[in-house]
Design a protein that fits this description.
The protein is α+β, with helices and mostly antiparallel strands. The protein is 28% helix and 30% strand. The strands form 2 sheets. Strands 1-2-3-4-5-6-8-7 form an 8-stranded mixed β-sheet, sandwiched between helices. An 8-stranded mixed β-sheet has the order 9-10-11-12-13-14-16-15, sandwiched between helices.
Length: 435
């Protein structure tokens, strides 16, 4: 029976020719045979991941948890192995994966994960990362840059990656937990592969990829079986500074199409969302709603839906037990001057605190100055800028601004918004309360 190569199951890629092939590393001191990995070796790679985590070798103790490995790392990567030709021992496994730190399905960015044995030094690690950049281009999927994550305590590895052309674009505080070190910051480093612009993938290519991955059967087993995560403290009714009253309630399962239309309309208008960020309703259900909390903002006077907020556990953290949340917010145009933005933020803080989240991670278009100002007003601190992270209608490829904020000081955050009376420490919160 023929062995099955480990290929990206999301977008079709060009098979890299002339593999297996020997490559020389560290000025000829090490020779490795590079080839595609095969699916019968996945158990070996899992053991290598566990061994690297136990060594604290740029792998968090719970970074590659079972759900992530099964559904994302193994299923959405091109996987290569580096073998010592004299012993046949696998010395490293390299993954080229769609980058989750962008806001585009038509990705210009690939994340490179490298899991190494203790025989691979930092120089060879960095050279393997650079080689994966060559491979990423050869895949002919449109990658123009590659990313690596480096625990900030690993200074020597960081410096070797710098020598290979990687530069730091963001530093995430308390992002990964290493054995023997504890909780550490993590640098996101990017290497440009080519500078020329490229054409976008066609709508048909995007739809085929998402329809193949996000199927109706998947929706039935993930979204329709349970819906969104309910927030026990909702509904809450509160009033904006301008005197408009709104009810914040849990979204109903049948309101998924309405929320999808609100967000996709904003994307089509180039208003805060990328053109391929929400390609299909099933994608939205599985990637945004399943396992997330969704809140409908309802005008008390008219019963009209004024907007929605979706709170998603962040995929970007390097810890399984992450208490980091991402937020997607959309307001209908007629309510954007009603003060609902600030009130929604205040209610959002209360909701997130009640769900146990400690930090909020924001990814904003660099062209959306109003949103960037809002993140600062909402006390999120800019921690990096990611190049070419999304394609915005009417503007083309734009950079992304990363911001991170603590949710610990609920009273202080609400006070700065002028809603300190909503703070849970100043009241006994009851389900269905009016504030």
């Amino acid at each position: 029976m023929a062995k099955e190569y480990c290929r990206d199951r999301f977008f079709p890629t060009t098979h890299i020719a002339n593999l297996p092939k020997q490559f020389s590393f560290n000025k000829g001191k090490k020779t490795l045979m590079i080839d595609y990995a095969t699916t019968d070796q996945l158990h070996i790679f899992k053991k290598m991941i566990n061994d690297a985590a136990n060594r604290g070798d740029n792998v968090g103790i719970d970074e590659y948890h079972e759900d992530y490995v099964a559904n994302f790392l193994f299923d959405m990567s091109e996987i290569f192995q580096a073998t010592d030709p004299s012993t046949g021992h696998i010395e490293a496994v390299m993954f080229i994966q769609f980058c989750f730190y962008q806001r585009a399905l038509d990705s210009r960015s690939a994340t490179v994960h490298i899991i190494r044995s203790s025989d691979i030094d930092n120089i060879i690690y960095a050279e393997l990362a650079s080689l994966m950049g060559d491979f990423a281009q050869a895949l002919d999927i449109g990658y123009t840059q590659i990313c690596v994550h480096v625990a900030f305590s690993m200074t020597d590895l960081y410096l070797e990656l710098r020598k290979q052309g990687f530069v730091t674009v963001a530093l995430f505080p308390e992002w990964v937990e290493l054995a023997g070190i504890g909780v550490d910051d993590s640098a996101l480093m990017v290497k440009q592969l080519r500078t020329s612009n490229r054409k976008l993938k066609s709508k048909e290519e995007i739809l085929k990829a998402t329809n193949d991955k996000f199927t109706l059967d998947g929706v039935q087993s993930t979204y329709f079986s349970s819906g969104c995560v309910p927030v026990p403290i909702l509904p809450i009714t509160a009033t904006t500074k301008q005197g408009f009253k709104f009810t914040f309630r849990n979204a109903r399962i049948e309101e998924d199409e309405m929320m999808y239309k609100m967000l996709s309309d904003a994307a089509n208008e180039g208003d805060g969302y990328a053109i391929d960020e929400l390609p299909t309703l099933n994608f939205f259900r599985m990637a945004y709603l399943a396992g997330s909390a969704a809140v409908i903002m309802e005008d008390v006077a008219t019963k009209a839906v004024a907007g929605a907020m979706i709170f998603l556990k962040s995929l970007q953290g390097r810890r399984a037990a992450s208490s980091i949340v991402g937020t997607a917010v959309i307001l209908n145009k007629e309510y954007r001057s009603s003060g609902l933005n600030n009130l929604g933020r205040a209610i959002g803080i209360i909701v997130l605190r009640s769900m146990g989240f400690k930090k909020e991670f924001s990814i904003t278009f660099s062209t959306n100055y109003a949103a960037i100002k809002a993140t600062k007003r909402f006390q999120l601190q800019t921690i990096g800028i990611f190049p070419n992270g999304a394609y915005q209608r009417g503007r083309g490829w734009v950079d992304l601004v990363y911001a991170l904020g603590s949710l610990e000081d609920e009273v202080g955050m609400l006070s700065k918004l002028g809603f300190e009376h909503l703070a849970s420490s100043n009241k006994k919160q009851a389900v269905g309360s009016k504030l």
